[in-house]
Amino acid sequence: MTNFNELGISEPIMKAIEKMGGFEEATPIQAQTIPLGLEGKDVIGQAQTGTGKTAAFGIPMIEKINPQERKIQGLIVAPTRELAIQVSEEIHKIAKFKGLRTLPVYGGQHMERQIKALKDGPHIVVATPGRLLDHLRRRTIRVDNVHTAVLDEADEMLNMGFIDDIRDILKAIPEDRQTLLFSATMPKEIRNIAATLMKNPEEVKVKSKEMTVSNIDQFFVEVHEKQKFDTLTNLMDIHVPELAIIFGRTKKRVDELTDGLQARGFRAEGIHGDLTQGKRSSVLSQFKSGRIEILVATDVAARGLDISGVTHVYNFDIPQDPESYVHRIGRTGRAGKTGEAISFITPREIAHLHLIEKVTNSKIKRLTAPSYDEAKRGQQQLTVDKLIKIIEKKELQDYRETASELLDEYDSVTIVSAALKMLTKERRLTPVTLSSVQPVSVKKGGNKGNNSNFRNDKRSGYGRKGKQQQSGGRNRKFQNNRTNKGNR
Ligand SMILES: Nc1ncnc2c1ncn2[C@@H]1O[C@H](COP(=O)(O)OP(=O)(O)OP(=O)(O)O)[C@@H](O)[C@H]1O
Ligand SMILES: [Mg+2]
């Protein structure tokens, strides 16, 4: 265990960390990489989801920034808009007492407003690659004073979809910069690419048996495609998540699932790359505040998002890549909390499930699909719990007389049943049919059909539709790479 005050952190940042609540000691990735970062070393940092990588790269970057110099000195690149906003907020909190300005810069925001904010002289910019490149080309951003560059979700940023953009971005930054790359996953071939962009990087990998966090209980349900939706709602009636994220493979899938869940009375909203930024932001803030209980998402929400209260992650469709599985389920079980991840596997996808287990070195336990009757019991149990709470409060004096009168007329089981029925939110059984999808499979030499669907959706999920079309060829190459890797 390492205390933050053993890491050579300055007073204003220590003060901020103390105020952040729950930061009693440094996590292993923080303890191991902050000193290296402070020494000015290039670092590739890999540690499980939810273990505080943001502060691990944020603290050394903030330490190096001169508040008097109103120029961009630190640049963080993240793959999605929501993540850029979140990282910017976390950095802002850590840098507060040093008086630094942090600005998120991402697609879907008014260009003019962004240009104005950039002119205000932020010290740190957290950007998505596409919008950052736009600014670089228009010369509305200056990165020639950047001394620290970070790629958050580095393996994703150095993947086929983003690598060219990242190379262009890094080329614009002075070569004597410090470069920090962080992610929960770092496939070997990506690490090799990473090394070409850095100077003698120190590789820090927080050792653990599994790639996934041990406080996430992992399950799978074997279920036919057509039964998936009913199984999902039955499971949720039993699990009663505080907040849940459901991942679907495509945007269309997310839309259909959201409609279906709403039809059955769940407070659900969808998020994917075809929605306006206004809608994306409002859905996410409603989810964070608990106004909606279920977020249905494409992989646009798979990486980095830190939302407290997410108790369950459902992979309605199993992801193609084991890495994607790791990031998706990592939206729960963060900062020491527990969580559950449940993946739906059609009979033809069992081999793919075993591949994920093997690559991530984790055990995914079988769960039997519950029946509708079991789901009903789950809902009633909720009501029973509420009733018991009221009984234990012992404030029933005002009701006793009426209760005895009722008991003269009806038997007690009938009366309690009626009370339970009145208090139970009975699930609407609206029939829901989703468009059919192909199963994910592990095949030699590529998996073009559904994987390209998945990838394209994911790319546009990042809000760069224009480029998506141009990069079709590269995407195909990418799939082959990935599938071959999967067979290793
Ligand atoms: N030392 C610490 N003690 C307690 N909580 C911490 C500590 N460091 C970070 N946290 C909190 O833990 C949560 C997860 O941190 P963060 O989002 O940086 O994880 P991550 O490793 O980047 O995860 P991912 O791989 O999913 O991006 C955040 O809410 C953060 O504020
Ligand atoms: Mg992160």
Description:
The chain is an alpha/beta fold. The chain folds into four domains: 2-208, Rossmann fold; 212-370, 3-Layer(aba) Sandwich (Rossmann fold), CATH 3.40.50.300; 373-398 and 407-423, no CATH class; 452-487, no CATH class. Helices cover 46% and strands 14% of the residues. The protein is built from 20 helices and 14 strands. It has helices at 11-19, 28-38, 53-64, 81-95, 111-119, 129-138, 154-157, 163-172, 188-196, 228-239, 251-263, 277-288, 322-329, 350-360, 372-393, 400-409, 412-423, 448-461, 465-470, 472-487, and strands at residues 43-46, 74-77, 102-105, 124-127, 148-152, 178-183, 202-205, 216-222, 243-247, 268-271, 294-297, 310-315, 339-345, 365-366. The strands form two sheets. It has a seven-stranded parallel β-sheet with strand order 3-4-2-5-6-1-7, sandwiched between helices. A seven-stranded parallel β-sheet has the order 10-11-9-12-13-8-14, sandwiched between helices. Helix 2 runs parallel beside helix 3. It starts with 10 loop residues before the first helix and ends with a helix. The structure holds adenosine-5'-triphosphate and magnesium ion (MG). Residues 215-375 form the Helicase C-terminal domain. This is ATP-dependent RNA helicase CshA. GO terms for molecular function: ATP binding; hydrolase activity; RNA helicase activity; RNA strand annealing activity. A motif (Q motif) lies at residues 2-31.
Averaging pLDDT over every residue, what do you get? 90
What is the CATH superfamily classification of the largest domain?
A: P-loop containing nucleotide triphosphate hydrolases
| Counted beta strands | 14
CATH topology (fold) name of the largest domain: Rossmann fold
Gross morphology: globular
User: Low-confidence parts, pLDDT < 50 over ≥5 residues?
Assistant: 445-488
* Content of β-strand: 5-15%
